[in-house]
Design goal:
The chain is of the alpha/beta class and about 350 residues long. About 40% of the residues lie in helices and about 15% in strands. The protein has 12 helices and 10 strands. The chain has helices spanning about 45-60, 75-85, 100-110, 120-135, 150-155, 155-165, 180-195, 210, 245-255, 265-280, 285-300, 335-340; strands at about 15-20, 30-35, 65-70, 90-95, 110-115, 140, 170-175, 200-205, 260-265, 305-310. The strands form 2 sheets. Strands 1-2-10-7-8-9 form a 6-stranded mixed beta sheet, sandwiched between helices. Helix 3 (about 100-110) links the parallel strand 4 and strand 5. Helix 1 packs across helix 5, helix 2 (about 75-85) packs parallel to helix 3 (about 100-110) and helix 6 (about 155-165) packs across helix 7.
């Protein structure tokens, strides 16, 4: 039965957990939590709603005040949605390499998007955000250190998982990290409520910051002072910026991580494509990276184990990226052959 909501914001959360049938090894139960079912298509809708409502409650965010954030795209899209629904102007800074469809989505939702140079990476978009805050007095949501981010996951995402496996085994929970909000917020609840559950974290092989064991250099206000020395460019947009976010560092320092996997970019993209072609699950490169880690766990898990992997967003965020590089817009030879098999109007190959 359909539900009624007072605004689009009421539809955030309560995303489905779906069984993997064709890609899972025999003998284990592999599930994915589909965060693309949030209204703007990613797990960051939760973060966006959380930080705005927390700022309203504390009085830090005043009526009509401009909201600003540095984003790889998904948080910006979520914030643009929340600000549109609540009536706040929104400005987002974004480093140049991120996909153009993310910029267009944010602007379509009414936000202003300031692009920063590719060479300055994520640290550069943070610096630009600080400059704009200092000049205009805008409210900076500070997604990488704002405790409202993991708090919301502790109140929503974690209970959703626990309820789905009430009275059953919950052997592994697998996630990547961007801000670290999902990791910290869900992991601390699992540690308390289901201490037997192993927490598995995935990060890009070209940016294995946690695996490096090297800490993050920070400014006095907690923001990164420079890029992490172990970071290299990678295709998992939204995963692992060129610094260790404070929230991620908190989660790692508090020993919430039982196993850490470094996932190569090509493997993440292969898993994303296979989820689409063999399970009908349409998700992005970061989801493919998490799923790759879940498959590694599944290959060694005991019979009957239950594994849950977080899939953070939709593949539509990646149409202009290498994920879709081999997907043509025009008919291929096999499709042309099908077309030629019947009389009528036919298109020539282009």
């Amino acid at each position: 039965m359909a539900k009624r909501f007072e605004s689009i914001l009421g539809t955030v959360g309560n995303t489905p957990i779906v069984r993997i049938n064709r890609l899972a090894p025999k003998g284990v139960n592999l599930y994915v939590k589909m965060e693309a079912f949030n209204p703007l298509g990613s797990v960051k809708d939760r973060l966006a709603l959380a930080v705005i409502e927390a700022a309203e409650k504390s009085g830090e965010l005043k009526p009509g005040q401009t909201v600003i954030e540095a984003t790889s795209g998904n948080t910006g899209i979520g914030l643009a949605m929340v600000c549109a629904a609540k009536g706040y102007p929104c400005v987002l800074t974004m480093a140049e390499p991120f996909s153009v469809e993310r910029r267009k989505l944010m602007r379509f939702l009414g936000a202003k998007v300031v692009i920063t140079p590719a060479a300055e990476r994520a640290v550069g978009m943070l610096k630009k955000t600080q400059e704009l805050v200092d000049k205009h007095g805008w409210y900076w949501t500070r997604q990488f250190e704002n405790e409202a981010n993991p708090d919301y996951h502790s109140r929503t995402t974690a209970p959703e998982i626990l309820e789905a496996f009430k009275g059953e085994r919950l052997d592994y929970w697998v996630t990547g990290y961007g801000t670290g909000g999902t990791l910290k917020g869900v992991a601390r609840v699992l540690r308390k409520e289901r201490p037997e559950t192993k927490i598995v974290v995935c990060e890009p092989a070209d940016a294995a910051l946690l695996a490096s064991g090297i800490g993050q250099e920070r400014n006095p206000d907690g923001t990164p002072s420079k890029p992490h020395p172990s970071w290299k460019p990678h295709p998992m947009q939204g995963w692992t910026p060129d610094f260790i976010p404070k929230l991620t560092g908190d989660a790692a320092d508090m020993k919430y991580v039982d196993k850490l996997y470094s996932i190569p970019g090509p493997e993440a993209m292969r898993c994303s494509r296979e989820l689409a072609a063999k399970e009908g699950i349409f998700v992005g490169i970061t989801s493919g990276g998490t799923f790759a880690g879940a498959l590694k766990i599944a290959a060694e898990a005991e019979k009957g184990a239950n594994i849950v992997a977080m899939l953070p967003d939709t593949a539509e965020r990646y149409l202009s990226t290498p994920l879709f590089a081999d997907i043509p817009a025009d008919m291929n030879e096999a499709e042309l052959e099908i077309s030629r098999s019947t009389p009528g109007c036919q298109l020539a190959a282009t």
